[in-house]
Write a structure and sequence with these properties.
By secondary structure, the protein is of the alpha+beta class. The protein has five helices and eight strands, in the order E-E-H-E-E-H-H-E-E-H-E-E-H.
Length: 155
């Protein structure tokens, strides 16, 4: 799968339907027929949309955890809490279930943002706050995460 690209402002209707931006839909086109998994994010108050192929790769890792260790079992339960299999309808809309809308605080204005191989779906105000909060630390974070090994071909 090619990395997804783009950040888009959208609206959710009263029923929780999100019209995917056409540029995002084009990138997702090869994956539309297989569906998606929508789940709560681990670190932020947003939702993560996994193409089914990416979800299956992640589940292979999770399935290797020893379920007879309590922390692994607790992690699996919390990681998969509230997840839903979702599809994009013929009109290009994705239905966000009410429990996931409540978790993420999504009301009407949202941001759909690519995160390499998945899509994050945010309430617009929460997204802007998360970006603003990270601005001051981003240079340090970039150096720590990406600047460790001078032998890499990252520029």
């Amino acid at each position: 799968m090619n990395p997804l690209i783009g950040t888009y402002e959208c609206k959710v209707d009263a029923k929780g339907r999100l019209m995917l931006p056409s540029a995002m839909k084009k990138q997702l086109h090869p994956m539309l027929q297989n569906g998606f998994v929508l789940k709560r994010a681990v670190f932020q108050p947003c939702l993560e949309l996994y193409p089914m192929s990416e979800w299956e790769v992640l589940m292979q890792k999770v399935n290797k955890l020893n379920r007879f260790k309590k922390k692994n079992n607790d992690f699996i339960r919390r990681f998969t809490a509230g997840l839903k299999v979702v599809e994009v309808d013929a009109a290009g809309r994705l239905l966000i279930p009410k429990d996931l809308m409540a978790f993420s605080g999504i009301t009407k204005e949202i941001v759909v943002a690519s995160a390499i191989n998945i899509i994050e779906i945010w309430d617009k105000d929460k997204y802007e706050k998360a970006i603003d909060d990270a601005t001051g630390d981003f240079a340090d974070l970039a150096e720590e995460v990406m600047g460790q090994d001078d032998s890499d071909d990252v520029s």
